[in-house]
Specification:
Blueprint lengths: L24 H8 L3 H10 L6 E2 L5 E2 L2 H16 L3 H13 L4 H38 L1
Antiparallel strand pairs: 1-2
Helix pairs in contact: 4-5
Length: 137
């Protein structure tokens, strides 16, 4: 089972249960907060796995796709470059033999996030000092 298909205790509540989870692009846009244009772009650049289509060619997303988009949203929040996210998606599609490279991408991103957190904590300390100073005035 791929990383995309796994569920975790952190999975968001999906609008529909498995088996009844066929969403249009506008429903996914509403649920994720992403625009339909962004969802099509994600698919075009290879960030989205293959999205099923209806007999009329309309995209049909599943809960698996929503899980993936939730994960991609978390990667975006980390500041991971789009090219790295696309590379990660490619590695997932290539299979389990890419675990080491995927892990390295995530570990690099984690180090970057920790560094940014430290910078923000330092910035917060400066703000607290200034706020305290104005509180005493």
């Amino acid at each position: 089972m791929s990383v995309i298909a796994r569920t975790t205790s952190q999975d968001p509540a999906f609008p529909r249960p498995e088996g009844q989870d066929r969403y249009t692009i506008s429903e996914v846009a509403s649920w994720t907060g992403l625009s339909a244009h962004t969802l099509r772009w994600y698919e075009r650049i290879g960030l989205m796995p293959h999205v099923d289509r209806s007999h009329t060619g309309q995209r049909r997303f599943t809960n698996r796709d929503l899980r993936w988009l939730t994960f991609v949203g978390k990667l975006r929040l980390t500041g991971m470059p789009v090219a790295s996210m696309v590379r990660y998606a490619e590695l997932v599609r290539e299979g389990d033999h890419t675990f080491a490279e995927r892990r390295e991408l995530l570990e690099t991103t984690r180090r970057d996030v920790l560094s940014r957190i430290a910078e923000l904590q330092d910035t917060l300390a400066v703000l607290d000092i200034k706020i305290s100073h104005y509180g005493e005035a």
